[in-house]
């Protein structure tokens, strides 16, 4: 029986770990589509090192990662950093900095099918993004969403501990 408790506690701790690293479905439920306004989609989100981006799309689209703000602004797809086309692509955010993505289908980037993601340190409680004009607002956003994810993990951990104890007796 103690074995069961140990397993449940560890699964709870694992839940804390996984909830701290978020997976962001690009474009929300609509996915990677021309109809989504990606600027407003990213506006209320914070992206941290260790998080993942998921691009879901039909064969009409693809994902091209661009190397610079200039290429992103002008939709210059000539020198991509990376190209993806599975329709269900996961991109890991392994370090801080800005990542630029556009659709590789002719004309789609110009129509607004592009997204820019600012990746911040996973352990920072305050966001320092040079060049950003929304300093204090994004600070509070980051803290609250981080706190929410942490508390979901905490509830799962306590929940599995309680279930473990009920099982044991
Ligand atoms: Cu497209």
TrEMBL record:
Region entry Disordered, spans: 123-142
Alphabetical UniProt keywords: Copper, Glycoprotein, GPI-anchor, Lipoprotein, Membrane, Metal-binding, Signal, Transmembrane, Transmembrane helix
Superkingdom, taxonomy of origin: Eukaryota
InterPro entries the UniProt entry points to: Cupredoxin, Phytocyanin-like, Phytocyanin_dom
Phytocyanin domain segment(s): 22-121
PROSITE patterns found in the cross-reference section: PHYTOCYANIN
Residue intervals passing through the bilayer: 151-168
Record's protein name: Phytocyanin domain-containing protein
Source organism of the structure: Microthlaspi erraticum
């Amino acid at each position: 029986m103690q074995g069961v408790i140990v397993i449940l506690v560890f699964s709870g701790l694992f839940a804390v770990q996984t909830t701290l690293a978020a997976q962001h479905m690009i474009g929300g439920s609509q996915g990677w589509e021309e109809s989504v306004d990606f600027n407003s989609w990213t506006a209320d989100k914070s992206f941290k090192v260790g998080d993942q981006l998921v691009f879901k799309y039909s064969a009409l689209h693809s994902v091209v990662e661009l190397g610079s703000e200039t290429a992103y602004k002008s939709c210059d797809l000539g020198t991509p950093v990376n190209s993806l086309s599975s329709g269900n692509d996961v991109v890991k955010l392994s370090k801080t900095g800005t990542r630029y993505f556009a659709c590789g289908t002719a004309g789609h980037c110009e129509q607004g099918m592009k997204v820019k993601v600012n990746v911040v340190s996973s352990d920072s409680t305050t966001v320092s993004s040079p060049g950003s004009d929304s300093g204090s607002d994004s600070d509070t956003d980051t803290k609250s969403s981080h706190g929410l994810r942490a508390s979901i993990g905490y509830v799962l951990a306590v929940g599995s501990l309680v279930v473990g104890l009920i099982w044991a007796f």
